[in-house]
Amino acid sequence: MQAQLATIVQQLINGITLGSMYALVALGYTLVYGILLMINFAHSEMFMVGAYVGLFTLTGLTNPHLVGGLAAFFKGSGFGLVILFALVFVVAMIAVGCLGMLVERFAYRPLRNAPRLAPLISAIGVSIFLQNAVLLWVNTMALPFPQVFPVKEITIYGSAQVSTLQIFILVTVIILLTALDTFVARTRMGKAMRATSQDREAAGLMGIDINRVITFTFFIGPALGAVAGIFNGMYYGVVLWNMGFIPGIKSFTAAVLGGIGNLRGAILGGFLLGIVESLASGFLSTGYKDVVAFIVLILVLIFRPGGLLGESVVEKV
Amino acid sequence: MGGSKMDIQTKVGDGGWSKGKIALAVVGAILLVFLPVVLQGFVAMSFLVRILAVVGIYVMLALGLNIVVGYAGLLDLGYIAFYAMGAYSAAVVGNLFVKAVSHIGAVGLREFLTSSTFIFMLPVAALIAALTGISLGTPVLRLRGDYLAIVTLGFGELIRILATNNFLGLTNGAMGMSINVPNPVGLVAMQKPVINIPAVGFSFQFSVNLYWYYVVVLLICFTIFIVRRLDNSRLGRSWVAMREDEVAAASVGVNIRTAKLWAFALGALWGGLAGVVFANFQGFITPDSFSFLESVFVVSMVVLGGMGSIPGVIIGAALIGGLPAIIQGVAQSPMLASVFHIDAPTASAIANYRYLLFGLLMVVMMAWRPQGILPSKRRARELHPEDEKTLEEEDQSLWAVEHGIDGSGHDL
To answer: CB distance A128–B296 less than 8 Å?
Structure first.
């Protein structure tokens, strides 16, 4: 009994870690959907590119040949580590955010008034393009993610353990989510985003620069996705060109589960999906853990297409 | 194909084929039948026969998906699942069949049945695939557009994951399974005559690849026949109505439920047929052949060629399915490589860059020519309404306004 309970606790911890990554990526889907009513299929590639940029920045900054004495400083003390990881995250967020803006500018903006199928197909094209660009550039091999972060296991209940990395991920994600929530609720830009998502045309008439809002959305979403990508690399220890696909689909599931277009829904959905998936892989077979997410996706879309926190949308003529 | 202005009834029916067209059709048919024979006869080019057969399978797949995407307007991103269903049912049921038949005492009958396994499997596997299509279609009837696309994607992955995990002990997991069906009916007899013309280096013997090439061509002709009929049928017209406006279509009496289910079932059926041929042609299948990327390829064939247009879809399938393989093949064949100046590294580089190019192509295509290379007339007008521009723009802004208002579920 105790062993069972310990397994449950362990899977819960793993699930929350996984869920916090899903939540970050799901926010990207939900932000874009809220404003443009389109599924940004290429978002999973932002996750992947983020992991690569993070990996390269981290290896670059810890390489004494490139940065000299700074490498020792970064690795030497707790303070150095904080600065190092802050730098890694900021660089990846800015780089991937810019990539997101570029993608919007060239692949989605020309299609803004096209039938809804067109941007989706274009997004799939972007996704394939980015995957293969990375594949050709860095080769097929999975790159190992350097273990710079000091990982320690802390036993909490029976055989259940939580690692410092898991705590780090959860804390960072909570900070980011709170920041985003406050940003959207309090700032001028956040207000403009909410207005645009309610009614793009009317928001434009009220003097909101729609294009700026959309560009900004395409910066924030991918930037958050990049953070999740780096976490994913740190957590699993590898970075691969097609690592974005499955987490991307799952995060989309999370966004739908919470109610797509709803920020808090995406967060809730992310954590829920992560936990369900971890429990399933702990108690069923690991081979079927991906199946769980897809079954959840299909069930949610069939029985509650509006999601947990979303309202159901009635089609009007 | 003269089109009346209203375009309600184009194609088929207006019989009068011009002489030029008939000549073109005859030349096309002759090429279709004899070109592979010529290719087979020259050692350096015989690899092209295999590629032609593979392209043919892609054409079937693309024509099947065209029913779902082009006619009914439902974006299916997991179409490869039906292909997989067809292939795996052909393998599983085919192997069972061969085993069952092996108990028959009469040698002649046993051999005949065993060698015709493929023909018996066609309807069985197609039916299984169609049933899969209906069982996917029923729960997702209410979904539309992007949501449907994502659910079908999930479904496609589901099937692949089940196959990888050796579902119910049927699929042998990631290692794949082989199809223990011996030479198909008639092949041995056809392989007997050998034609030699030493003067030009021509030496022809009927091959397995050639056999499957002809099977595929026959099936494609059958597919085109059915699909053209469908396009102009009552069902086809209700698909058009549904694709253009579901609510309006329902209000004038189109049964959306039936129309969608038929689209799913028929699309799946052709996916299944293609799967059966694929499984028998390869003799061996693994879950890797049914990845999401394959689904995307088939979608790009349809989109690139022109949604809803049969010649367009065939061109799309030939371009995307055939070109990379041909380039690679040419590089591997020493004689042709010297003619075309493509060496092995260049060829593999081209093959590697093709995915990159596909991605780019999809983006460019959507922005520049969303109707595809050879669009169907009606689809072109839907996607590129130059003539009725003002009208359409008015429509769209109205639609956007309305949609914005009822989009209250998307509050941030």
So the answer is: yes
Residue A160's DSSP bridge partners are A157
Query: A7 exposed, middle or buried (CB, 10 Å; 0-12, 13-18, 19+)?
Result: middle
CATH number at residue B290: 1.10.3470
A150-191 residue pLDDT tens: 888 888 877 788 888 899 999 999 999 999 999 999 999 999
User: Is B17 among the domain residues?
Assistant: no
d(CA A27, CA A262): 9
**Model-level pTM?**
0.80
* Overall domain count for chain B: 1
ipTM of the complex: 0.83
Residue A259 Rama label (left phi>0; alpha psi -120 to 50; beta): left
* Per-residue exposure over A68-80, b if at least 16 CB sit within 10 Å of its own CB, e if not: eebbeebeeeeee
Range of the domain at B300: 42-403
Does B75 lie at the interface with A, CB-CB under 8 angstroms? yes
Q: CA–CA separation, B299 vs A125, rounded Å?
A: 11
CA distance A204 to A210: 6
Q: Which one of A126, A298, A314 has the shortest CB-CB distance to B154?
A: A298
With respect to residue B33, please indicate whether it lies within any of the assigned structural domains. Answer: no
CA-based radius of gyration for chain B: 23
B294: in domain: yes
